[in-house]
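EI: anyone free to look at a 133-residue chain?
SC: sure, send it
EI:
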Amino acid sequence: MANLTITNNNAGSVILESGEFRDDLLTFGGAGTVLEGTILARDSVSLKLVPFVKGGATNENGIPKAVLTYAVTATGAGDLPVRDMVSGSVRKQLLVIDADGDASNIDNAVIDQLRDYSLVTIDVQELNIVDNQ
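SC: here you go
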Protein backbone atom coordinates (compact mmCIF):
# COMPACT_ATOMS: atom_id res chain seq x y z
CA MET A 1 0.00 0.00 0.00
CA ALA A 2 1.32 3.43 -0.91
CA ASN A 3 1.97 6.07 1.74
CA LEU A 4 -0.75 8.65 2.19
CA THR A 5 0.12 12.20 1.25
CA ILE A 6 -1.61 15.00 3.09
CA THR A 7 -2.00 18.26 1.20
CA ASN A 8 -3.13 21.43 2.90
CA ASN A 9 -5.54 23.34 0.74
CA ASN A 10 -5.25 27.07 0.34
CA ALA A 11 -8.60 28.37 1.52
CA GLY A 12 -8.28 31.64 -0.30
CA SER A 13 -7.44 35.20 0.49
CA VAL A 14 -6.73 36.91 3.78
CA ILE A 15 -9.81 39.03 3.02
CA LEU A 16 -13.02 37.63 4.54
CA GLU A 17 -15.34 40.49 3.84
CA SER A 18 -14.77 43.35 1.48
CA GLY A 19 -13.70 46.48 3.25
CA GLU A 20 -11.96 49.71 2.43
CA PHE A 21 -8.77 49.80 0.40
CA ARG A 22 -6.24 52.55 -0.20
CA ASP A 23 -3.47 53.16 -2.73
CA ASP A 24 -0.21 53.66 -0.84
CA LEU A 25 3.55 53.31 -1.09
CA LEU A 26 5.33 50.47 0.73
CA THR A 27 8.95 51.16 1.69
CA PHE A 28 11.55 48.42 1.28
CA GLY A 29 14.96 48.63 2.96
CA GLY A 30 16.39 46.27 0.34
CA ALA A 31 15.44 43.41 -1.95
CA GLY A 32 12.79 41.12 -0.55
CA THR A 33 9.20 39.96 -0.49
CA VAL A 34 6.38 41.07 1.77
CA LEU A 35 3.84 38.24 2.03
CA GLU A 36 0.08 38.36 1.57
CA GLY A 37 -1.54 39.08 4.92
CA THR A 38 1.39 41.10 6.27
CA ILE A 39 0.37 43.67 8.84
CA LEU A 40 1.61 47.14 7.93
CA ALA A 41 2.27 50.34 9.88
CA ARG A 42 2.57 53.91 8.65
CA ASP A 43 5.92 55.63 9.17
CA SER A 44 5.21 58.89 11.02
CA VAL A 45 7.96 60.76 9.13
CA SER A 46 7.58 59.62 5.51
CA LEU A 47 3.86 58.69 5.82
CA LYS A 48 4.61 55.57 3.74
CA LEU A 49 3.76 52.02 4.77
CA VAL A 50 6.36 49.83 6.47
CA PRO A 51 6.08 46.32 7.93
CA PHE A 52 4.53 46.31 11.42
CA VAL A 53 6.96 45.51 14.24
CA LYS A 54 5.39 43.98 17.33
CA GLY A 55 6.44 46.21 20.22
CA GLY A 56 8.10 48.63 17.80
CA ALA A 57 8.56 52.26 18.79
CA THR A 58 10.43 53.74 15.81
CA ASN A 59 8.33 56.24 13.83
CA GLU A 60 5.10 54.44 14.86
CA ASN A 61 6.14 51.11 13.29
CA GLY A 62 4.45 49.35 16.23
CA ILE A 63 0.97 50.63 15.33
CA PRO A 64 -0.79 48.38 12.77
CA LYS A 65 -2.85 50.37 10.30
CA ALA A 66 -3.26 48.18 7.20
CA VAL A 67 -3.02 44.63 5.82
CA LEU A 68 -1.38 43.73 2.53
CA THR A 69 -3.76 41.55 0.52
CA TYR A 70 -1.22 40.14 -1.95
CA ALA A 71 2.53 39.45 -1.96
CA VAL A 72 4.86 42.21 -3.16
CA THR A 73 8.48 41.67 -4.23
CA ALA A 74 11.12 44.38 -4.51
CA THR A 75 14.44 44.00 -6.31
CA GLY A 76 16.10 46.65 -4.15
CA ALA A 77 15.56 49.43 -1.63
CA GLY A 78 12.83 51.95 -2.39
CA ASP A 79 9.08 52.39 -2.53
CA LEU A 80 6.54 50.30 -4.43
CA PRO A 81 2.88 51.17 -5.00
CA VAL A 82 0.43 48.85 -3.22
CA ARG A 83 -3.31 48.67 -2.62
CA ASP A 84 -3.72 47.85 1.06
CA MET A 85 -6.76 47.02 3.17
CA VAL A 86 -7.48 49.65 5.84
CA SER A 87 -10.79 48.33 7.17
CA GLY A 88 -12.81 45.14 6.98
CA SER A 89 -12.66 41.52 8.13
CA VAL A 90 -9.55 39.35 7.71
CA ARG A 91 -8.64 35.73 8.46
CA LYS A 92 -6.55 35.61 11.63
CA GLN A 93 -4.68 32.49 10.49
CA LEU A 94 -3.47 34.19 7.30
CA LEU A 95 -2.11 37.34 8.94
CA VAL A 96 1.66 37.75 8.99
CA ILE A 97 4.12 39.66 11.13
CA ASP A 98 6.95 40.34 8.69
CA ALA A 99 9.78 39.53 11.13
CA ASP A 100 8.27 36.09 11.85
CA GLY A 101 6.93 35.25 8.39
CA ASP A 102 3.73 33.85 9.91
CA ALA A 103 0.96 34.40 12.48
CA SER A 104 2.74 32.74 15.42
CA ASN A 105 3.13 35.99 17.41
CA ILE A 106 -0.27 37.50 16.71
CA ASP A 107 -1.82 37.69 20.15
CA ASN A 108 -4.79 39.51 21.68
CA ALA A 109 -2.80 42.75 21.97
CA VAL A 110 -2.14 42.80 18.19
CA ILE A 111 -5.76 41.86 17.48
CA ASP A 112 -6.94 44.74 19.69
CA GLN A 113 -4.58 47.15 17.90
CA LEU A 114 -5.96 46.05 14.51
CA ARG A 115 -9.52 46.49 15.76
CA ASP A 116 -8.66 50.07 16.82
CA TYR A 117 -8.14 50.78 13.10
CA SER A 118 -11.28 48.92 11.89
CA LEU A 119 -9.49 45.71 10.89
CA VAL A 120 -11.45 42.87 12.44
CA THR A 121 -9.70 39.51 12.72
CA ILE A 122 -11.85 36.41 12.59
CA ASP A 123 -10.67 32.96 13.64
CA VAL A 124 -11.93 30.72 10.82
CA GLN A 125 -12.15 26.93 11.07
CA GLU A 126 -11.47 25.62 7.57
CA LEU A 127 -13.63 22.60 6.83
CA ASN A 128 -11.82 21.71 3.60
CA ILE A 129 -8.53 20.81 5.34
CA VAL A 130 -8.00 17.22 6.44
CA ASP A 131 -7.69 17.04 10.23
CA ASN A 132 -6.63 13.40 10.64
CA GLN A 133 -2.88 13.97 10.52
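EI: The first strand starts at residue 15 and ends at 28.
SC: 👍
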